[in-house]
User: Fold these one by one.
Assistant:
Number 1:
Amino acid sequence: MELYSVIIADDEEQIRAGISRKINWEELDLKLIGEAENGAEALELCEQLRPDVLLTDIKMPFMDGLELCRKLKQSLPTAKMIVFSGFDDFEYARRAVSSGVFEYIMKPINANELGDVLTRLREKLDTERLEKRDMEALRHQYEESLPVLRELFYTRLLDGHIPSDEINERALRFDNEISKQKWTVVLIRINAQKSLSYDELVLLSVRGFIEQHFQLDVSSVRTLLYNDMVTLLVQTEHIYPLIQEMQRLCYLVSCYLGINICAGIGRAYTAENLKFSTKEDKNALDNQLLIGDTEVLYIGDIEPKQTARLSFDEQDMQALENAIKFGTEQDIHLFIDALMKRVRETRFTLAQCHLFFLEIITALVRLARSVDVEEDFSTSFTNFVSISDFNSLDDLSSWLCSHCTNLQELVGQKRFDSASKTINKAKDFISCHFTESDISVDTLCDYLHLSSTYFSTLFKRETGKSFIAYVTELRMEMAANMLTQTDEKTYLIAEKIGYTDPNYFSYVFKKHYGLTPSKYRAGKRS
């Protein structure tokens, strides 16, 4: 079994050594991985090594034990903490227990008592570990339920009950990627027969037979049970080969299983619109009564043909926006190529594409306006542009790619300028307030109206330093200057640059420059 890791924090080396020596760590399934002599060092060590257990004194330099525990509750919420205290700190220690500390122990520390506490703590850690294993068991149960959940997913997809932006994410949970290609839904209804008792076993039998004998060469086909019908989800836009295959399967089912079935076929749609194909299937099957004894019905043969239309819809607009704001130049070319392919497939002339072209231009102007680059982007249109200005679809495609790429560059520059302005504003704030003891990321982010997580990432990326490191460097530079240029006392210098504890200031200064403030001053003046 893996041992639980422990860190000891106490400013008395004798106490740390005593605990380390007197406790049989391995017998308790524990291992000592580090020691710290003050609260600030303990915090840094814990965030680096991430122990399971912290043993800490209450009174320590630079940061007391309760403050240390409070901070670790944020960064290491699963860590268990044991606090040592003197008799005079009794009430102080009681507050430690109420604030989430596992146990407090009165000094002087008794090895047997500490051993008992560690035993109870180890038992609690064991219990939590078992609970994690139970979660693994639940995950295994979930995996066993995947076939049922997969069937439910497809049922809800065909009913149109899954938001379009969630379809692929949910499909991937079942190791099934729903591609952006078009799919056709086939609903297979079992016709009532006097000699056949209709039940789920009949459905399963028909489903299994079709899965085994389906031979059409398509990229993907999935079978499921949907509303007392066997359903095929076929990735294809070629309807008539699918009709022929379903006619063959209906004949085979009748011959081998003695079951008469009827198949309704809808038009091909992308995944988010499969509910339309499903409705068309149902309409096709409803027409069997009117048409007569027909085994396969295609909605396109039943309903009047619709005039082909080109439309730049919300889905297209979102895809174009994503390509410009988050994609590459190649993504833009791929998107425009796909648009031009749609135009070619309709066999429209350029003149017939006028409205489609205006919809694309409107989308680009709306995007430019939303990111506040409308004025710069609009300068690329010297006059009003018309579809008649182009001689071919290739000319139109090149023009669109050029202006989309231009807009992409403007958006990128705007994003860069915005980030630079934010960092410059942050630096100005820090330069005005770094001498205040309560300056923090949170106060700065309140001023900037940004989340601390986003700001910290942005600040580190732009400056190469964390917020704390940046503030500390400013303070150290100011302190070094005051030490060499003035005769101010060290504690006054510490106070003026934002340190309420002069000892902690000396500790940080030595860590930064390798010398204590007094030695640094002496060295500069010698």
Number 2:
Amino acid sequence: MDDHRRRRGSPPEAWTVRSAIPGRIRLRHPLLSRSQRAAEHVERVLFETDEVLHASLNPLTGSVLIRHDGRLGVDGLLERLNDGLAAALCGCRGSGLDRSAPRTLDRAGFQLTLSSCSVVLSVCAATSPFLAPASWAMAALAAGHVFYRAFAALFRERKIRVDVLDATVIGLALGYGKTFAGAFMVWAVDVGDVLLAGSMRVSRLRLSEIFGRDVRKARRLVDGAEIEGNVESLQPGDRIVVRSGEQIPVDGVVLWGEAVVDQHVLTGELVPVERATGEDVLAKTLLLAGKIAVEVRRTGGATRAVQIVRIIEGALEQKVRLQSAAEDFADRMVLPTLGLGGLGLALSGPGAMMAVINADFGTGVRIAAPAALLAALSRAARSGILVKNGSILESIHQVDAVIFDKTGTLTAEVPVVAAIVPCDSAFDEDRLLSYAACAEQRFSHPIARAIRRQALQAGVVPPPVDDSHYRVGMGIEVAIDGEQVLVGSRRFLERSGIATAGMAEHLAKLDAAGNSAVFVAVAGRLAGLLELRASPRPETRDLVRRLHEVHGIRDVHLLSGDQEAATRSLADLLGFRHYSAEVLPAEKAAWVRRLQDRGLKVAMVGDGINDAAALSQADYSISLRGAADVATDVADVIFMDGGLTHLELLFEISRDLRRRVERSIWLTAVPNSLCITGALAGVFGLGSSLVLNNVFNLLAIGSTMVPQGDTPLTPPPPPA
């Protein structure tokens, strides 16, 4: 066996090659059995190594089994693994994930090993009495951390927690000479700790699986040449080239080129999007076709992808309300359980007393609820739903009222050309549209995209441009066939000396309908205008109907700043029973409060920045701003694809989470209540209590740790 040591900055221990055959290698490092951080970094490095097909890490033995494609060099692999260990030891960022918490040793695996040895020794002592003293001492040593937690609860926190019950029953078992029972109880506690620690480690690995491998290399543009280098060396302002089939390694803006980008890992949208000059691209997304040059805006931990991971990791630290309520109930039951244990001692002896005290109500749900929350957050992330406040997942499906803001929420970002109105007999609709499309062909804002799309659908080919000038905030001046063409706002034309007074009545009707207009002037005279109308999201009408009919939510409201007629027309089109027009942004929070004053739980769906006050006031806040603004968005939930299609899936995930937590509570409460009743009646002893308590605790934990699948939506129960 060869030892491989890092040439510089080496951890004090070395990697050991335990076995190696073609396509398979087993390595060992002592740090893996002592540091959870080290294990996480090593697992992440292996996940990001293309040649690795599968890796299985055993923290108890400090070893890792690696299956690879045969191209893997041992020296190169060890170099990468040592980089991961060095990052773990110094508390640095690894693989884009910032670990700001201080480094702590993972003692759960060590404690489980110790308690397992204690159980084995106590079994041996049953047939070899001379081992009894060593067995008792081993059990007491293994129980040290349980006694410490009970001491900390009593004398530091000054609270009576379930840990006190655990320490009491273990102490009584050892005091009465029931060494195996005491050792087994310690082992059961340690199994729970390992399951909880393991589920949190797996959660971070699942996040890595969701967002894919990190790109290590990038081609930087320097004086027109492409120079390959490490992604870590890129700085804002650098320029890189990305080709078809490559992952975009940074957040940036397209300088030149066109591409089709798959960004479902961030947004959950299955349809690839087109990206061209001036448009943003995000790290972790895949370029399917084309070639683009990208100016770097954000790298490493500043990218949207890493911010999303941090938000999800923060959500994992929160407790669901049912878990907190169950733990509070379990803590409150400590003193009554001790009292019932005393009654059991008086009625049936020490065995009944220990059987009662062993039946605690908190262990199962304390581990099962975080595991259920992990499954829910993982499914949401896979579906493009970013949950910033994990606790709301438990009850958002019970919402009583939903408020939708109109602009950017119920309407698409890009408007539609509703009508083309010629104002001069020399211009027909096609000619007006061709001039407007010609002027807007170099721009990517929503109005330009709407005009170009209409020209494409109508089969209109824009004429060539002789010259072009953009007037900021006003419009565009172009030369077509030697004629001056102005395309833009009414103010732009009037400042250019072109009269529009004849269109005043028509414009008043447009304003009343909530529509807008783009004017076209040719050779100093008004040629006509293009009417633009907000385009409702195609999924909105069916969603509103299902909220009413399937989910039983009667209060579904539309808020709009438009005039009454336009708002009423949109409400009728989309199926809203309640709407309000001419609502200023500052008044939206007051609307939320009015519904809350009626005792309703209110969800607000809107703009995560401009609707900040209303979103903060709501019981549940949902934003459709997508992946670009996760850092500044104040909403609890963000739909990363910017659409409404995930709202019902969010309700389904919420219902599933609550079902899992409630099931774990029942699987914990019923058997333990049966244990207490049976012990007081003299039917159950300590052995029966140990079996019932721990078997059902493990069932409760296991029932919540199964990952949620992307199954079809199940209908909710009918409303009361």
Number 3:
Amino acid sequence: MCGIAGVLNFDLEKPVSREAIERMCAATRHRGPDDHGIHLDANLGLGFNRLSIIDLAGGHQPMSNEDGGVWVVFNGEIYNFQELRADLQNRGHRFATRSDTETIVHAWEEFGENCVDHLRGMFAFVVWDARRRLLFGARDRLGIKPFYYFHGRDFLAFASELKSLAELEETPREIDAEALPGYLRHRYVIGPRTMLKGVRKLLPGECITVRDGRVSLRRYWRLPLDGVRRIGENEALERFEALMEETLRRHLIADVPLGAFLSGGLDSSAVVAWMAKLGVADIKTFSIGYDSPESELPYARLVSRRFGTDHHELVLSPEEFAGELPHIVSMMDEPVADEAALPLFHVARLARRTVTVALSGEGSDEIFGGYPIYRTMTTIEALNRVPLAGAAGRLFDRFAGGKLRKYGRMLGRPIEQRYGGVSVAFADDEIPELLAGDHFAGGEEAVAQLYREARGAPLLHRMTYVDMNTWLADDLLVKADRMSMANSLELRVPFLDHKVVEFVYSLPPGLKVRGPRAKYLLKKAMEGRLPRRIIHRAKKGFPVPLESWFRGRLAGYAREVLFSAGSGIHDHFRRRVVEEILRQHETRDRSNEIYALLVFALWRRRYISRAD
């Protein structure tokens, strides 16, 4: 796991400065403390920070082919590199290392831009073909690894993290006015936008080609929308278990110590169960909890005892939350108001004391329909078939309050109008009142386009299609990558192996959500392996007790940050509305909204205020 950075000037006579590449790399040294490298080629500069995982001695980057005509910088893991290497050797390619990085170099020589079709893994990489003066970059199919870029007037810069691009004087320090309403609605910025005007990110399964000053983008992979397969439960279960075991074997390849995050939920517990089944000895597991009812430590301990893991845990306090939040927001790169970043950061730091690689359960809820909101939307869909559902919805909108109004007003409305994603902060009608000045709702067209792409698919598939292309890529995986890499820890997510995703996504909805049971097939797979209390308990995720913290020990902290210099309150929000939100939290939960404003204020202070 590593960090990449680089600049390509469109003028062949304009060299890239080594100092600029060094600054970009220095900003993300946490991504790769073990080794560093730079390659300059006239109008091109490539930079690299390495966290050594495979072939510790021979994986130095930037890496080239035999004659120096092709160079690569690569962040991630290619899980099928051994088979790919053998295939390329049979085609006449000669390898100088044992690293998975070198398979990308020779795959480029053999397949060109179609090399991405042969890679199975998590990756963000750039290939420089010196003979053709062509730069090619790609991001993995699910967006596990990040790829940011800025297309200037006469250059293109790219990096693993936004903070590397921020080291370039040419990168604008300006809020994208079209991104802010979407952030307030979703708690993150939907790609390809970022909150920095002009800075973009490759979408999952997207590649970029730059030649002769021309920049082109192409999606090489999307979630399969070619229909639901006909398959029985027993066959589906057998194939799923075989596929997961094969995937876990690949994810266990490493030349460094390896462990697993263990929240006590079904997904991380299932990963540990498969590791045990595959014979992993002395499994090291890591958990975070609180001195409050939200803590899941008892469940993590239950799973640890079942498999005899070497278990490590940590209890967090609200003071630690406040003390670490500015650093966490800075390390997240983008304003992502997901409070689970806090425990994830600390569990990664805990794990890094004894391992360099950790496995986690991200992605299971998205592919299996595990969120309760999916069942709620399915119920509303059934009610919408009842005559006068729309009239009932208008009555709820007018006379009801709270959740009754929220869900009642959805009656009579199609899924495209009532479900915009699993993560919500501010309601649509609150955003214009909160915002000061002119802003545009730029992110919602992206959601509308995703619904158009998924037209005709079952209801569950349409909702998960939206969430996997937005919430998963722009929140969960941003959080997973940044919080692990902030601690120089590689995080692997076997549920998001694209072979697993393609298989599960193609299953009938009834094998994923059956009545009140979400993640049906995964739960069937875990019967007899995990305690029933783990399999059937309600989903919590990584809960953080923000509601009580913002009413108690962190109430003053929230006000102090929001109304401090550089917070952007006066530039972007109406102070009276922010004051009202803080007041309302005394009697009803507004913690999501408060946290979204806190994260934005801290992010603005880090990335914008220095340029004011």
Number 4:
Amino acid sequence: MKLRYLLFFFVAFSSKGIAQTFVPTVPIPMPHVPTMRQLSHDYIDKNQKIITQLDGSSDGIFFVSNIDSVNAKTNDALQIIIDNIQAKIELDSTIDENNKYKWLRSLNDMLLSFISGYKARLFKGNILYDVIIAYNDAMELELKNQSIKPIVEKYSFEVGEILIKNFALKTNVGVPSCADVILFKKIQRYPKKTMYYLAQNPNAIFADSIIISQAYKDPEQLYNYAAAPDALGKKIQSINEPLVKRIGLLALMKTGRMYFPFLDNLYRGKITMDSITKVLYDSVNYFKLLVNTQIEYAGRLKNNDTPLVMHALTYKLKTKAVELYINQINALHDAKEDIRFECLKPLSAKDLYYVAVIGEEEIYTSSYLGVYKRIFERMKNPVADTLLNWVNYDLYKKFLKIAANYNTLDDFLKRMDKANAEKLMRSFVSGLEKTTSLEDAVDVANSYASIYNPAIKKLILQQIEANLIQSEVEQNKRGQIIYNLLNTIFLSMDSTNKIDIASRLGINAVYRMPIKDLKDSSGTIIIQQFFYGDKDGVGVFNSFFKHYPATAWKKIDKEQWVELHSTKGVPIIIYCNKPLDNTQDLDVKAQEALGRYLEENELYPTVVIHRGHSYFVGSTIDQLPASAKVVLLGSCGGYQRLNDVLETCPMAQIISSKQTGTGTVNIGLITAITSTLQQNKDLNWPNIWKNLAVQFKGESKERFDDYVPPHKNLGAIFIMAYNMALQANEEYEE
């Protein structure tokens, strides 16, 4: 049986064109196996076969890579080396009968550990070769009564854990010292989990060194564990090192989180605990202290001096901006302007800059415009680059992006000399390849669609092209991908260039959504709408059904939601949760109930629509089904949440407003989408937009113009194209 299996294995690989270069391990002939041990061998053979099927195929080969040589080596180990270990156990005269059972069980235990770990996604299949080789070497050492620590040190911690937990190896003389080795490997692999792993073994020989190092590398993580009444917390508190001592002290204070953002200045002696205490319960002055410290830290960053807990400071600044100011002015959106913005009176232009830039996800359009206006009212000489100098150009790219989205960029640039404005915009689109995320590049992409000044657009294109050339000269692959994509996307915005962006970038067609991609296996299209239970939400919900008459739609009323079934054309079902009382979260409970119903009945929405104010959009995004292919964010400033949508639905086509979302525009879009689908037609976005533009008049037309269709949603297009380009580049390198 084994011989036939090996023959199939070699033929299978020969058919893939690699048998000519593949030299397998030489098999050891299997001796006669006593009947009483045959069952142990059968278990091993069975699990070898199970492993070959873990990739979802029953072809007898376990594919772990796109590289044939890696697959060949892995399957060689799985079939021949495992068989050889079985043969060696039977042939070794130094192993008595009882220990032969032990080692056969141990070998099977190793295979089972791999199978269970792989199924649990604790590791990938490509570690199988290392597991088998490491086990074979560890077995040799154990038979000689030698430590397996050198083997554990050689391989990844996943391999090490399989070895030290193995039935025959867990009593090896080296196992106690292997725990520290594995712990250190985990910390090296996942530095963000350093304290989590250290908590599992706080008495590791290197614990003190790791804790001191963590104080400088990631003090926030250390702070989170320093007050715990456990062994690790006590270990941290016992270390006599100045920064560790400072962090430990703050962690033990009830108000430590309020002091923690100033850790760097406290450690350096630039500020005292008393000076912070004086403003701790003075919300305005505490906010101003946060702002001034943020500006100081931004200045240090420009000089390549990264302050401790910069992230914690920025996060605290954001939470205070939202809590003290943004929430208030948002809540008073129907009040007179002097009442609505009263809370901003004590703030300077610098303070207001941070209110505008740091709360972009929470601030309403009208709130932002009110803050923006007051920034320059507070300046004796309202020059834009003076403001940026005051804040050390902190978050300036984010500010420019927001200004573009809210149509205040032209005004901002006009408040400085033309040369300075040009220099600023060149800087805005440069250095995108040097960051660790795509955030700046996406901001640039999103902003371009909101810039209407031809001179600025031309300037940006010129700089993008210059950056692309520079990246090619420097052979910077990331820069080449980023700037090439931006260049292509921006040029495609001009119809005279006749660029088919979908085919050029290798992404799904952005100008249309094929109807076949929206239908389920039965040919039905599932649409889900999220409604909210405030006064406006109830009104929008009640008026929605007026647009879907009984002559073409059947309405089914359930306890927590309503269903609309089309009775003509393509079968469509629209599920709408009821806007129950949001003060008791009954609307969210209705949404959750509907979500469970859809999932349990394998009904997967491909069109998802948010109906509600911007302060509800986060809840919709949190519940967004991964099946969504078209997403309409019908709220104010939905354009600010594109990245969040794409995290769940990376290839979704998104419609959103850069400014004020309105019910009139939303229902126009929704009925246009559903009527098009009912006629069994693809969603052709340019055509839909062209037809709707004629329907809207006056203020509604102005609101409609702020909505961004999928084919002009440059940030989303960039993310899709970047991921495709990155994947193609990795495959090319392989």
